[in-house]
Amino acid sequence: MTQAADQILTVAQMQAAEQALIDNGETVESLMERAGAGAADWIWRLAAGRPVTILCGPGNNGGDGYVIARVLQERGLSISVVAPMEPGSEAAKTARDTWGGQPVDTAHGEVFVDCLFGTGQSRPLSNELVGTMRTLAASHNLRVAVDLPSGVDSDSGALLNDNLPEYTLTIALGAWKRAHWLMPAMAVMGERRLFDIGVGPVEDAIQLARRPGLSPPDADAHKYSRGLVGIAGGDMAGAGILAARAAQHGGAGYVKLSSPHSHPDLPADLVHDDSGDIASLVSDERMGALLIGPGLGQTDTARRKLTEVLKSGIALVLDADALTLLRPEMEIAFPGTVLATPHEGELDRLCKAFGIVAEGKLAKAAALHESTGMTVLAKGPDNVLVGNEGTRFFPPTSSWLSAAGTGDVLAGLAASRMAGGRSAFHAAEEAVQIHAEAARIAGPAFSAVELVNAIPAAYAQFL
Ligand SMILES: NC(=O)C1=CN([C@@H]2O[C@H](COP(=O)(O)OP(=O)(O)OC[C@H]3O[C@@H](n4cnc5c(N)ncnc54)[C@H](OP(=O)(O)O)[C@@H]3O)[C@@H](O)[C@H]2O)[C@@H](O)CC1
Ligand SMILES: Nc1ncnc2c1ncn2[C@@H]1O[C@H](COP(=O)(O)OP(=O)(O)O)[C@@H](O)[C@H]1O
Ligand SMILES: [K+]
User: Fold this and answer.
1) 290, 353, 430, 454: which could join 441 in a potential S-S bond, CB 3.0 to 4.6 Å?
2) pTM of the predicted model, to two decimals?
């Protein structure tokens, strides 16, 4: 069921949703009034009595700016409006006339409000407009983008200009847009808030991931009922151990690491099969999910292991080397129960191997899902999850995750959730958020081992 508050719309979907409201008796003016007043409330709180400068563009985003100017002025704030372009739309003209003030050439204040362009941004800004924005942004301590920062492409999250300002707060109007959750735009938005103007649920909209609701093991749980995870390791022991550790903390009752190496740091509570015999791992009927890739290597033996695992019919997480080795001719028994977790480079390699030509992370992940039937989690600073259940975006997480081994931790977590009975899609949805919470708890400059150690505390946040 689509949740209106969590839906993420394209410009076309947003326009259709606004049209549906208008067909139901609203007008562009009444929607603008509601949107502008809602944004003004947030800006009022942020400004706390300090002067506000509003940059208004020619379209309805500029119209929102004139509504904000009027509402805040009526509440007694000192407001300056900078308007390098005349209002073009009827609603924006009405909003400016109702405000009734005189724009100024430039202003210094405490809060800068960007109402230059929103979803109607159709091309890069002129150098002159970028200069105006930068000057205003630099002379105000707090910066608010209304709906979207100007210069951002709403559907792709691309920045259409260099040297755009960074914001303290971005207030999405009516619904989230894709750019609110996609890099590089996501990184300049600061805090994000959504103001509801009555937009209803839109069919097939991308959703923001739901906060996981985890539970403790059932009263009569035993180690197998909680889930048995197998990790098919290979040449590099460390990555497999990290993933196995994460799987132990991710809810599974039993984790078995199959790798032909012993390692001085092998935990005593991890079951280790040093024969590395893949046939015995996949023949274990209690196996709830199997992870292959971290530390696997790219040798012929690794390829043979992958081929066997793909045929096993066990729910799988494919990461790292397994993604590099995967080829269209390899038979996957049940692609619907397979989760692939590529980072950007692995996603590109997979697309090449599967003959996919697509632009951008979302299109690549969607095409890979379509072509293989696997659920695809395209990782990075922004995470995009595509599966039979739909598409999910995620809130930004700690940039300290950019450390070697954190992907192995995520893969182990996802396998653990799958062994516990989640679908590939929901396992990934939960794993990304447990991982993000562990990163928050681990604080700055953590290593992958410290991230693993923070998982139980992260898990507790969702109980
Ligand atoms: N519709 C509704 O019911 C509601 C909408 N709401 C608000 O409206 C916003 C969308 O409004 P919008 O569609 O008018 O687009 P907006 O972003 O203001 O810009 C369009 C104008 O900019 C121009 N332009 C574009 N790029 C340019 C460039 N680089 N350099 C120069 N010019 C450029 C473009 O010109 P054109 O491309 O036609 O030449 C056009 O004139 C939305 O984000 C939300 O804030 C809310 O009030 C709630 C109700
Ligand atoms: N700048 C960043 N901000 C937030 N998360 C990041 C960032 N860079 C990487 N990550 C996350 O860290 C993990 C890195 O995974 P991956 O690249 O596979 O690393 P490795 O193979 O070394 O384990 C992924 O979960 C990814 O989403
Ligand atoms: K804006």
Assistant:
1) 454
2) 0.96
